[in-house]
């Protein structure tokens, strides 16, 4: 009995590892199949499943190449499939043979499609940009230019000092008075006493010039309004750009209960290179200090430090939760992820802000787009939280992340 149990356990471990290596969903291999098959049969079954997955994308490529006028619909299907993952097969970042075949098939068509049309397939563009920069397709392959979302902190013109403004205004008024006085003196000398000059009639040309001047002022005012509106839109987009956050991998070295709040825990988190910071989290209901000690976590490190119930906190541990908030757990970086490395998001480049501005409520605008997908992978708008060792995940699927 013990030997049979050991063999079943061995086959289960083998099946899971093979599925991951061959980009096959482990759930497709049933417990019955594992228990009743010998090792050779189990191996053949998994390899065949892997080939079936690849052949599904080979068929897609054949259909795409042979279809006339249906490419847009097929691209839309591909776009939907890529909305929840970085590559076609597997849940990591390593391209498979399916990625190579499909990329080579759709590339020529994509290069002929207008930029406005391509914007309908954002996930395809992100995927193609990633594949073309990691797979060698030779010198004859034409690169696809993809406009990436780059965060640039908005620049605001320096406001004039109040003292300088008042001083300038006084000088201008003083100068105007002197000029008026000077002009008045000159006019009084030139004109005989009692003589009054009749006002000149406005000529058509003058009226026309005045009208043109008014229109110019209106145009200038309209231009400034449009420019301000454009700046506001740019500011709004930048504040919802995930790249403004500095999200890093950390290791909890020590955890203890908050001295004055039963619902809070205090963690000492190592970010590498001697960078250790203290973070307060509302995890006491879901985790014990022992559960968190020596655990790798994902945290935002550029939130503004502040006190939570009189204890300083300088970070935010990101957790996944169910809709009813009955289950909460910190996100899990993949094994092999380096302490301190920054989490990246395909298609989003840019440097994080030094410190987030609480008044702008930037986190409130970003966190609604943070979720785990059906595989438990943490995502921003469907794009995985990615480290050098793969994506971050949680056992809570289709959950909120904050």
UniProtKB/TrEMBL annotation:
One CC-aspect GO term: cytoplasm
Report the locations given in the UniProt record.
Answer: Cytoplasm
A biological process from GO: translation
Which residue intervals are annotated with compositional bias (Basic and acidic residues) in the record? Answer: 158-169, 187-203, 212-235
All copies of the TRNA-binding domain together span 241-344
GST C-terminal domain segment(s): 32-161
**SUPFAM superfamilies in the record:** GST C-terminal domain-like (SSF47616), Nucleic acid-binding proteins (SSF50249)
Instruction: Name the InterPro entries on file.
Output: Arc1-like_N, Glutathione-S-Trfase_C-like, Glutathione-S-Trfase_C_sf, NA-bd_OB-fold, tRNA-bd_dom, Tyrosine-tRNA_ligase_regulator
Pfam families registered for this protein in UniProt? Arc1p_N_like, tRNA_bind
- Residue ranges spanning the membrane: these are none
Q: Where is this region: Disordered?
A: 148-235
A Gene Ontology molecular-function term? tRNA binding
Keywords for this entry?
Cytoplasm, Protein biosynthesis, RNA-binding, tRNA-binding
Q: What is this protein called?
A: tRNA-binding domain-containing protein
Protein species of origin: Panicum hallii var. hallii
């Amino acid at each position: 009995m013990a030997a049979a149990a050991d063999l079943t356990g061995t086959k289960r471990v083998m099946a899971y590892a093979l599925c991951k290596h061959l980009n096959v969903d482990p759930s497709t291999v049933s417990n019955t199949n594992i228990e009743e098959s010998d090792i050779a049969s189990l191996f053949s079954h998994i390899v065949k499943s892997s080939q079936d997955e690849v052949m599904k994308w080979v068929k897609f490529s054949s259909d795409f190449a042979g279809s006339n006028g249906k490419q847009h619909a097929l691209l839309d299907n591909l776009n939907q499939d890529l909305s929840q993952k970085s590559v076609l097969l597997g849940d990591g970042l390593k391209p498979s043979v399916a990625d190579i075949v499909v990329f080579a098939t759709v590339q020529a068509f994509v290069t002929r499609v207008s930029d406005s049309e391509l914007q309908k397939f954002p996930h395809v563009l992100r995927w193609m940009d990633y594949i073309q920069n990691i797979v060698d397709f030779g010198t004859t392959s034409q690169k696809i230019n993809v406009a990436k979302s780059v965060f640039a902190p908005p620049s605001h013109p320096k406001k004039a000092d109040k003292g300088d403004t008042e001083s300038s205004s006084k000088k201008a008024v003083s100068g105007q008075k002197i000029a008026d006085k000077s002009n008045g003196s000159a006019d009084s000398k030139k004109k005989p006493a009692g003589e009054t000059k009749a006002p000149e009639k406005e000529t058509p040309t003058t009226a026309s010039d005045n009208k043109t001047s008014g229109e110019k002022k209106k145009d200038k005012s309209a231009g400034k309004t449009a420019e301000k509106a454009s700046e506001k839109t740019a500011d709004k987009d930048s504040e919802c750009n995930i790249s403004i956050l500095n999200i890093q991998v950390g290791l909890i070295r020590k955890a203890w209960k908050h001295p004055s709040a039963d619902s809070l825990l205090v963690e000492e988190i190592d970010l590498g290179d001697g960078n250790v910071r203290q973070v307060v989290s509302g995890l006491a209901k879901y985790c014990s200090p022992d559960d968190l000690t020596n655990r790798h976590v994902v945290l935002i490190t550029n939130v503004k430090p502040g006190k939570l119930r009189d204890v300083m906190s300088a970070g935010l541990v990101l957790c996944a939760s169910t809709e009813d908030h009955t289950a909460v757990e910190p996100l899990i970086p993949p094994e092999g992820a380096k302490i301190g490395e920054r989490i990246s998001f395909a298609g989003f480049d840019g440097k994080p802000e030094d410190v987030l501005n609480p008044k702008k409520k930037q986190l409130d605008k970003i966190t609604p787009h943070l979720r785990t997908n059906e595989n438990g992978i943490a995502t921003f708008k469907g794009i995985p939280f990615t480290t050098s060792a793969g994506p971050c995940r949680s056992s809570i699927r289709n959950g909120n992340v904050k």
